[in-house]
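pasting input
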Amino acid sequence: MNLNEKARSLLTRNQHLLTSVCLSAFLLLVAAFRAPQLFSSSGIGSAIIVLAPLVLASLAVTPIVLAGRGGVDLSVGPLLGFLNVTLVAWLVEYGYSSPTYVIVYLVGIGVLYQIIIATIIIYVRVSPIIVTLSAYLVLTGVNLVILDRPSGVAPEWMFDWGNGATVFSPVFFVLCGMIVLWAIFSRTAFYQQILLTGGEERMAFASGVNTVGARFGAHAVAGVYTAMAALCYTALIGSGDPTQGSTYTLSAITAVVLGGTSLAGGRGGGLGSILGSICIYLISYVLATFNFGTVSGFVTQMSTGVVLVMSLLVNSAISRPAGETK
Amino acid sequence: MEVCNSMSDTQNQVQISRVVKRFGETIALDDVSLTISPGEVHAIVGENGSGKSTLAKTMSGVLRPDSGLVTTFGESPRDPMHARALGVATIFQEILVAETLSVADNIFAGADSLWKRARSRAEANQKSRSILKQFSGLDIDPNTPVQQLPLSVKQWIVIARALLSNPRLLIFDESSAALDLDATTRLHAEIGKAREVGCCVVIVTHRIAELVRIADRATVLRDGRVVDELVGKNITKSNLLRSMSGKNVAIDAKVAAESMLGRELGSVVLSARALRVDRDAPPFDFDLHAGEIVGVAGLDGQGQTDFIRAAAGLISSHSGSISVAKPQGLGFAPIDAKTSGVAYVSGDRAHEGIFPNLSIFENFALPLYRSTFGEYGWIKRRQIQRAFDGEVKRLSIKTGRTSNLITSLSGGNQQKVLIGRAFAAGPKIIVLDDPARGVDFATKRELYTQLKEFVHEGGAVIYLSSEIEDFFDFADRVLVFRQRIPFRTIPAIRFSEHAFLAAMFGESEEAEMSFERVGAA
């Protein structure tokens, strides 16, 4: 394969990234003019700390969406909140707050939860939206029962994680580690099976792909990433918060879609979700430099919505198969 | 892969014994038994709904029999994964590809296990490229998303997927449907190779001419039962037809030709002026008269499909115009086509024909609600019911309860519902895009009778077919496409297999003429 051809095949494979790449480049440019402090060491440091939970949550949703059949995890936010409040209210409270305990606990519960959800979706055959919406409501309630208001403290060893004065904070390394893990994951046969299952399930099934295994696996990976998102989230707020976690659901799914991953499954990937998260962060960052006063939160939401719709339009325009009729 | 020597050993055979499979009240397979030996090409033939596809699906583990046993090489496949492990590779009637994934991903689907990759990506890419080049003659980048490729290449991808798994049992379920003549010949060569290494090959097909050429043994199914088994020389067209229909069918292609030739043609009902099927194609004119059946043929991708889709208003032509009775400009859309009395029947049932999640009746009635039977948004259910019953009877569609999902019907019966739908809309012109794909001989004959009646009453038909034999005794003239224009128009009086092939392959007129003089003598 010559160089030209290599470049072309790289382009065809990554067509879905077009919007998020262009958008983040544009937003970075605007940010460079409006608020250049973003590019200082502390600016990048704090951006990473704010971004980490969102990036990890969107990576958690990605494999589930890729596996198709309308797969989506609406409960990613409350699950993240659940892990956060139980970490603060139980583990720290009863003295099991060493890093090993915390990580084993988070990953264990995250994966266990996702396996239960996957079992309901796969064997009871309830639509993923319904299952995870129910789980969203249940967990939101449970979180408030465990911790009725923001309180508690993060484990001691996490105290300095959240200040983000430098780029190379512990959160940075956690994030990088998880991204490297994703890169490895996306090169495995397992990942391929998830894509095939999501791309055309009947074909995958009939040609002997273990579709059930692939789906369970996708959920398990989601569990791991939600766990790490919860870890970074706890580091970010330094305490327990029963309600804020839930807001990650919408941002994470928005990031996944902005990243060009098709909600129908089979198309997209982790890089898109990372870029999508960055876009979402940058939108609110850039908008914060304008003075919208008390309504700035609404303006951010509104802009995110508009950007999402626009990106879908662009995506559908570029990914239309050749020769398709109008 | 191992070569099987002992013919009697169950370890090396595929045995189907007393298999019964029901779908609700329909019995798809009724006590079916047969044995497939290694190195044998075993054809399974039968009319629509005779259970051929169901039988193929039980062998590939997609369906499990209600009773009886399928033993492939000593074990019964539990599911497709297990079947694959046993060495079963199936090419299904539907072209199953993941549209958004790459060519290589599609070709090697199922080759890897959940944790272990069977080969590196580079190797998969390189192998995909070479096998597609070998099969289709095209050099295709293995990273191309499959949705950008034409149907025939998708078909090759599916075939490549099966062949690359080193199968011991290879099942073709109507899988040459999307291939043209030349490609079918290449496919037969591949089947021959598989046979030589001792593979069991099962072919489910409607193309009788095809299986007469390659089958060693043919099992004939009728209404889910095995009614005949033909071996070697006994596999002939007439034997097969006799067993399939249960009665003596005389095949003579040239009887009715005269009556059609004598018919007066009516006024022009559809005309194309300076039409180009794509941007670079040369322009051409075309007129369709009332009372005429125009066949359209050609090798794959010579523009005939675009032409027929433009005629049906599905795509806009790149330049030029198509007018139906009264002039219409560019950008003539399906909805315009419908209001001006053009009905379209697609051979690509899954994508352009059926609504898989609706019932048989709804599939029939949906497009009719507005045009024919609805006024002011009200649906006249009783009228539609009457039309439906009429078409079911006329086309002898085998339906269970009409509120069942359309997907509960066999492919051929689904197609009949779609054809009935086209008739019921009361069109002036019917455009058919290879509607006989996956439809048995008897249904085809019925369809032709219906279409002839339709033109007698002043209708006009454009009919694309990938099978030359379809045109005999049916079409008034055939446009053979080559290089994106009608390369040659062959009138009914000069129909011969040779004439079609010569035109398709662009052979000179003289070669054809000399042959025809012999034919005419």
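fyi Residues 50-270 of chain A form one domain.
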